[in-house]
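Hello,

I think I submitted the nickel (II) ion job twice by accident. Can you confirm which output corresponds to this input? Input:
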Amino acid sequence: MANTITADDIRELFSQAMSAMYQQEVPQYGTLLELVADVNLAVLENNPALHEHLANADELARLNVERHGAIRVGTAHELSTLRRLFAVMGMFPVGYYDLSQAGVPVHSTAFRPIDDAALARNPFRIFTSLLRPELIDDTKLRERAISALALRDIFTPRCRVLLDRFDEQGAFTQAEGEEFVQEALETFRWHRHATVDEETYHALNNEHRLIADVVCFPGCHINHLTPRTLDIDRVQALMPGSGIEPKTLIEGPPRREVPILLRQTSFRALEEPVLFAGSHQGTHTARFGEIEQRGVALTPKGRELYDRLLGEAGIGKDNLTHQLHLQEVFKGFPDSDVLLRRQGLAYYRYRLTPSGEAHRNAIHPGDDPQPLIERGWVIAQPIIYEDFLPVSAAGIFQSNLGDENHAHRHGNASRQAFEQALGCPVMDEFALYQQAQDRSKKRCGLL
Ligand code: OOG
Ligand code: NI
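Support: Only one job matched these inputs. Its output is below.
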């Protein structure tokens, strides 16, 4: 096929189109983007070393582009079609997240690029949740939800035609790729017209606000987008001054010398006008904006330590107290690259320096990289965490669902059912990081 478009290019076009659409739909999100850009600029001005590092890594130009978004779907067929749609963009399901533990009746995965080059080009991911109707206690309501979902098709007919064509051809021409992005965008657009009447909406909303959000509209509207910030504490503090109401707590680990995993915060979902079947007016609260700051990916051992300390820290009442307390508790988590590497807590990407190249013959599989790093032959760079955190995700969900207590729901992960709905297994995030580290070690002759 002549003149084909790459998956990376399609993902790039798609993330740009999503961003433009969402800024139009949710003007407050545009305000957040401006604030994030201002803070990023200020951080770079005060930190020439970081500026140089980002410039060298070719990251300056894409500093302010979105890193992820999130959607929620209602049926196995919707989820498996999304799998095909995201595959066109080089995004594959990684990880299984059980949110039922937090009283949210969904389970989730993240569609994201997986290889180093694709991640470097554009790491855009979509956190995708599938409703679990079996967790709706009221039988009548459950059936109403299922039948409302059965009536909708969240994909345009043209999108389906193009998906079939992609599966036959294995690629798109430039023109097909561009058309596909426009058609795919329709699935994520906001619809003011609900598919159900007011009474059904309220019944589902009372069962759980998330159920109403998934079931009552003709599409699976994007519910937030998330740019990257270089200083999440500062953006959180500045949000109110820009007329944005942040959630109470920044989720994830505390601020550290060597950032780990993922820190996130969001602004509260907006109340937006909707029109129910029968033309009754009402409002719906679902859509918000979020920011993220990522650090090094942890090994299973590092992750265990993180989960334990996070559990010990508990949840604070206000962000300042919470962050100070987290910092105290996380004194138990080594905070230097050397210790993180030596204790096998985090993943690193190894590279030979020019003098390392000159001494290639002196480097052997199984060598301890540390002395080679100290000699200036090898450089180790943190592998950035590309995934999500279930406790943080639950915090983000809950801050946008009000503070109702759904403690009566017990967690019951159902990865198998999720994968069956998806139509394939989800990839193991730890395996992906391990492979990236191993590949880099092999290139250096260390493995
Ligand atoms: C998804 C919430 C999770 C994150 O960044 O952890 C999430 C949702 O509200 O649908 O996006
Ligand atoms: Ni998010």
